[in-house]
Amino acid sequence: MMFLVGFISACQKDTNEQAVLNYKASLAADSALKATSPDNYLATSGTLTLKLQDSVYTFNAATDSVAFVNLKSGNNHYFGLTAINKAHDVSFGISSKGIATDSVIKAVAGGQLLVMKDAMHTNQYTLTPYAKPGDSGVIHLTSYMKNDTLAKGTFFTFLTKDEKSNSPFYRVEGTFELRLKEKK
């Protein structure tokens, strides 16, 4: 019996040590991301609006979480928008390869829309891996980091509900006009 207690205790210790190691690895990854991506901003006001078929989704930065992000991975730079509404039942993200600047038009590199109707039903739309170069849409950044404007522009892309090559594409188009607050 004592052996069994010792074994269980040792397993719990291993589990706790692994949790600490996982936490430390997570902190290191977060620190690396912050060090290489200092230009991520959480908007304090403005909107991000998108349309998919007959549905329109609007994220209001005053009540929802709407951010403009800049990332660097190796030699590659990316910028984009990410948003989740206050109810946490709709989220959206879109990104492009390149550096965010005024009056830039870049091809969409990634996109995802999640709509949770209830706890058991979620519609997930993603950028298909079968899009040909130039067929994934664009992000048109008309204004970036001017006065109190964080980012302003338009976008369109094509998302699908699954990753099958013959799945239908849905055009998603939208606008954004966001005001500045640096994310810390």
Describe the SSE topology.
Elements: H1 2-36, E1 41-42, E2 46-52, E3 55-60, E4 65-73, E5 76-84, E6 90-97, E7 104-118, E8 121-127, E9 137-146, E10 149-160, E11 170-179
Antiparallel strand pairs: 1-4, 2-3, 2-11, 4-5, 5-6, 6-7, 7-8, 7-9, 8-10, 9-10, 10-11
3D shape: globular
Query: What is the average per-residue confidence, as pLDDT, rounded to a whole number?
Result: 82
N-to-C terminal Cα separation, in Å? 52 Å
Radius of gyration from the CA trace?
20 Å
Total strands: 11
**Unreliable stretches covering 5 or more consecutive residues:** 1-15, 29-36
What sequence of helices (H) and strands (E) makes up the elements? HEEEEEEEEEEE
Count of spatially separate domains: 2
Q: How many helices in DSSP terms?
A: 1
> Strand share of the residues?
over 45%
Secondary-structure content class? alpha+beta
Please describe the biggest sheet, giving its number of strands, its sense, and whether it closes into a barrel: 11 strands, antiparallel
Helix content: 10-25%
What does this entry look like structurally?
With 184 residues, the protein is an alpha+beta fold. The protein has two domains: 1-36; 38-179, no CATH class. It has one helix and eleven strands, in the order H-E-E-E-E-E-E-E-E-E-E-E. Strands 1, 2, 3, 4, 5, 6, 7, 8, 9, 10 and 11 form an eleven-stranded antiparallel β-sheet that branches. The chain is globular. The chain starts with a helix and ends in a 5-residue tail after the last strand.
